[in-house]
Design a protein that fits this description.
Length: about 750
Amino acid sequence: MTSFDTANVHFQRALQFVNQTGRHIFLTGKAGTGKTTFLRYIRENCFKKMAVVAPTGVAAINAGGTTLHSFFQLPFGPYLPTHHSTTGETQVTNEHTLFRNLKFSSSKRELLQELELLVIDEVSMMRADTLDAIDTILRHFRKQLLVPFGGVQVLYIGDLFQLPPVINNEEWAILQSVYKSPFFFDALALRQSPPVYLELKKIYRQSEADFIQILNNVRNNNTTPADLERLHQYYKPGFEPPKEENFIVLTTHNARADQINRQELEKLPGKPSAFEGELTGDFNERALPAEKILKLKPGAQIMFTKNDKGEVRRYYNGKIGTISRIAGDKIYVKFPGDDHELLLEKETWKNIRYNYNKEKDNIEEEELGAFTQYPLRLAWAITIHKSQGLTFTKAIIDAGASFAPGQVYVALSRLTSLNGLVLYSRIQPQCIHTDQRVLNFAQSEMSEEEMQEQLEQEQKHFVTLSLTHAFNFIKLTQNINVHYEEYAHRQVPDKNSAIEWAQSLLTLAQSQLEVSDKFNKQLTVLISEAEVNGYVKLHERITAASAYFIQSLEKMLASLKQHANEVKVKKKVKKYMKELRNLELDISRKKQQITQAVQLSEGLMKGTQLSDLLQLAEAQKSPVTIDETISATETIITAKPKKGDTQRMSLELFREGKTIAEISKLREFATGTIEGHLAYFISTGEIKITDIVPEEKIETIRKTIEEMGSGFASSPVKEKLGDAFSHGEIRAVITYLNAREAVKE
């Protein structure tokens, strides 16, 4: 489990914005401030249904997610959120052509509908038009065309002062008619819903005040002659690093890095040993986090490409070491200043797909493919681009005059200290430049006081949204309506009866929808009044409303259970029973939401701190517990009764004409037990109430129940009626009345 620095107030506040609000967030921070740690913590501790995506395959694998393009099936090339037409060879997608080419499965549609939090890592590399395409897709499939991202909270993580999005001149010539810049923050979607700007401040990578100041100046286009003079103290063009000091060269191009690594490996004596990684399933070979065929020799300088999965954390992504020896398929590594040898183990990277699990009400990761290899690479050299996110104690920067925007900052900020820096070439002032549009966007950060005030406002808004959402029956009614409308294409025994049942369930849901719409309008007014006059009245109204709606939902569940009991003994109903199970889950979760709304309003009434109240809500966010489960397993859905189905054995004997007393004697069960067996089949319609209870007794029992208001309990009714009536007869009538009530409703 990932831990975090509890004294880091910015980290804590960012967690609160993610978990306790619905606000979109841009989380940034200088190199070494813990953005990766934050993402890891959110993945492990956030209660929201979430997915993690990134612009590139490598970034997605490192983040433990998937790529933007695979998750949303995004087209490659520019996207225009208009019906603009363009000429030229570049393929341009607009809203019309976007949906024409999307082929989402029903499971992917359900996933998008249930998604609550979308995390986009390395957002600095994502273009504005890509974000608008995502916005368009989410609005469409979540059926919320007027709400940014269809109501999904978006967490953007990245550092815009590092590597920018890639866009060629032809693509920008097309996009500049719509966008001010290619950066994500100029997406049209963000004009309607800008994210709150949160910056992690505490630097864990560097501790030298002068070095931190230089990095800040490079980052903000404020480099002084004194800064450059200080950096050029480490200009050593002919420097030959001692082998034992494990310097790594940071260069601008892959070819140069590969050349250095190859030359250094050839200098070592002997033939290299080859270790081939294993690919299984679906895994993009262009996004391999380590070499597919890893060639090593004793003495080779290597860098780890993955954090140690063990508790001791012997290595981390970016740690430098040396191959001490190779024994067959065993690789041993030593670290500077440590004589201890580490025996390496292979690691596995996964290519995943997200799926929604309706039973657990969460989003799960499905492994599509995997790559298994030793988690290291040759590391005499690496590109500046691939060094992003890594930490080195000693590095040689070999970039010449070919720095791209952000590269000087990325390269320098990989180091923990100036003492580990060597420059092969001088840094020219013109190479240090940050896009002015990035600097302008950074000005949107609020003061500490404004930030805290904003958080409290968003927390309050989140609470009120939770209350109104609890009493919103739109989605539940839509799901029941979809179930009803699909009967024309459904294979189910006694279809006409099933359609009638579904119609009755839909009618009940629609009536509750009408009531809930009216109540939600009242609720909005009550919430605004409560902010001024207190929350007592609000809590009273929510408590009363919850009692009404829960009673109605319980009636729906009773009707559903009765229908399922009638159907489950018939042939070829496995798929249909699963559909009924899904409806049961939908109705039960609505009950859970309403119950939690009462708890939230009670907390507001008692003056519970919003943060504490929302933490309580987080803790209660769990899969719904269903008392009466509709099972769809093979053991229940069967054409004939199981041999051990004791209730049905009693039914078969009763159908043969045997009396309850005779069945009791044959099966060696008490008479009351047999009466209970048969009473069960009254609810399924397989036995008429008059088959086991005389009509005059039925009427007497019914009137007694109505007079006593017993809540359909048999014992008090038996006490009043005396020995002329058995428990079995009373239970049979109660079963009958329950079934009739469900049908009426």
